[in-house]
């Protein structure tokens, strides 16, 4: 699978590119970013680095997006598309990603697009321009859904190990504020201009909770801003209900000098499961005793590798639709927006 990586920022270069390079069936043929500094950082790897991936603006490509629909399992390999690019990974900000998804999926390419799928449900309406076949080729970078720890949690919930219903407490805290790290402070401020942490982190959490418990109802929500001048509340939380009487108390926090522990707990009458928010180590406590469950490797490597594997399976026809799908990404955004709206 000939893949272009679009967006050479933090996650693009630190996680997507290494995972793409590790996969034996993937050839990274193009690195793309409009920012010359980012292009400079990515240069020297023997992969062409360009400012865009559209006709007439690329240096190393002969074709350009031509609106064709071939590629992958359903047609001839798409040499005519963007100089032979068959898939794109979009590691771009969510205020840029939707237009790019529509452009590339609309041209018949397979697309792995970072979460969140947009910064608002309104902005996500652009996806209505894609037809069923084009939507099917889109996979969303809700990366950690792939982790075996999430599947293990689902087994403990479904087989009654924890008892039912469960109370979920999700404490999602990240991005500690360090004024000396100007690049990080600017990036997080820029991101907050496009919504509170529930929009950005909620994409993951609401996706996991829907996968584990079903579709949510938002009961109530709150928010707080810890310093003047922040473009959005940096602390926000909500109470949600799920089918079967499950409930979730979720909190998201960014950008304070110190952060509470990032952890999700699942408490039922028979047991308690705790998921470390960073390592994804699991701890199960029941009347039978305590048990720790760890999966091999570090979470980022494990999940980004599984994500690329699923993307290749989408391309070769093993999977009929992206997992997680565009609809999954839109559903998580919908919940995040409801929470943000209720929180005020
Ligand atoms: N899946 C995960 O676990 C995970 C983790 C971190 C970030 N993310 C998501 O990844 C995305 C990127 O985050 P980041 O931290 O790498 O941000 P970043 O700002 O470091 O990188 C984004 C890059 O996209 C580039 N870009 C902007 N407009 C572009 C365009 N039109 N075409 C091509 N490139 C363009 C920017 O120049 C920048 O280099 C965000 O949506 C974020 O939510 C996901």
What would you say this structure looks like, in words?
With 344 residues, this protein is α/β, with parallel strands linked by helices. It folds into two domains: 2-114 and 303-322, 3-Layer(aba) Sandwich (Rossmann fold); 148-294 and 332-343, Dihydrodipicolinate Reductase, domain 2 (2-Layer Sandwich). The chain contains ten helices and 14 strands. It has helices at 10-22, 36-42, 97-106, 132-136, 148-158, 182-192, 197-200, 202-213, 299-316, 326-343; strands at 2-6, 27-32, 49-50, 87-90, 110-114, 138-141, 167-174, 217-224, 235-241, 247-254, 263-267, 271-276, 282-286, 289-293. The strands form two sheets. Strands 8-9-10-7-11-12-13-14 form an eight-stranded mixed sheet, with helices on one face. It has a six-stranded parallel sheet with strand order 3-2-1-4-5-6, sandwiched between helices. A hairpin with a 5-residue loop joins strand 9 and strand 10. Helix 1 crosses helix 9 (299-316), helix 5 packs parallel to helix 8 (202-213) and helix 8 (202-213) packs across helix 10 (326-343). The radius of gyration is 20 Å and the shape is globular. The relative contact order is 0.15. The site of nicotinamide-adenine-dinucleotide (NAD) has 23 residues, from helix 1. This is Dehydrogenase. Pfam families: GFO_IDH_MocA, GFO_IDH_MocA_C3. InterPro entries: Gfo/Idh/MocA-like_OxRdtase_N (IPR000683), Gfo/Idh/MocA_Oxidoreductases (IPR051450), GFO_IDH_MocA-like_dom (IPR055170), NAD(P)-bd_dom_sf (IPR036291).
């Amino acid at each position: 699978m000939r893949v272009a990586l679009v967006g050479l920022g933090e996650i693009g270069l630190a996680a997507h590119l290494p995972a793409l390079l590790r996969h034996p069936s993937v050839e990274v043929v193009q690195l793309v970013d409009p920012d010359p500094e980012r292009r400079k950082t990515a240069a020297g790897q023997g992969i062409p680095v360009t400012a865009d991936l559209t006709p007439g603006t690329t240096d190393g490509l002969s074709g350009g997006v031509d609106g064709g629909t071939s590629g992958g399992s359903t047609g001839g390999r798409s040499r005519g598309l963007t100089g032979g690019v068959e898939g794109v990974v979009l590691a771009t900000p969510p205020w840029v990603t939707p237009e790019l998804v529509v452009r590339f999926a609309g041209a018949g390419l397979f697309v792995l697009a970072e979460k969140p799928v947009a910064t608002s449900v309104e902005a996500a309406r652009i996806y209505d321009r894609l037809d069923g076949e084009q939507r099917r080729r889109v996979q969303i970078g809700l990366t950690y859904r792939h982790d075996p720890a999430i599947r293990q949690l689902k087994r403990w919930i479904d087989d009654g190990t924890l008892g039912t219903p469960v109370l979920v407490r999700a404490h999602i805290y990240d991005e500690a504020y360090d004024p000396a790290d100007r690049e990080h402070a600017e990036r997080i401020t820029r991101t907050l201009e496009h919504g509170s942490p529930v929009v950005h982190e909620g994409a993951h959490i609401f996706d996991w909770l829907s996968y584990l418990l079903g579709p949510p109802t938002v009961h109530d929500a709150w928010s707080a801003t810890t310093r003047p001048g922040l473009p959005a509340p940096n602390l926000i939380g909500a109470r949600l209900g799920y089918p079967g009487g499950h409930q979730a108390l979720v909190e998201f926090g960014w950008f304070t000098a110190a952060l509470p522990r990032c952890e999700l707990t699942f408490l039922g009458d028979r047991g308690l499961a705790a998921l470390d928010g960073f390592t994804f180590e699991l701890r199960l406590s029941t009347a039978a005793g305590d048990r720790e469950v760890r999966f091999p490797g570090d979470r980022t490597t494990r999940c980004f590798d599984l994500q690329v594997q699923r993307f290749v399976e989408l391309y070769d026809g093993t999977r009929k639709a992206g997992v997680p799908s565009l609809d999954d990404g839109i559903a998580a955004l919908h919940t995040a927006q409801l929470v943000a709206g209720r929180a005020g």
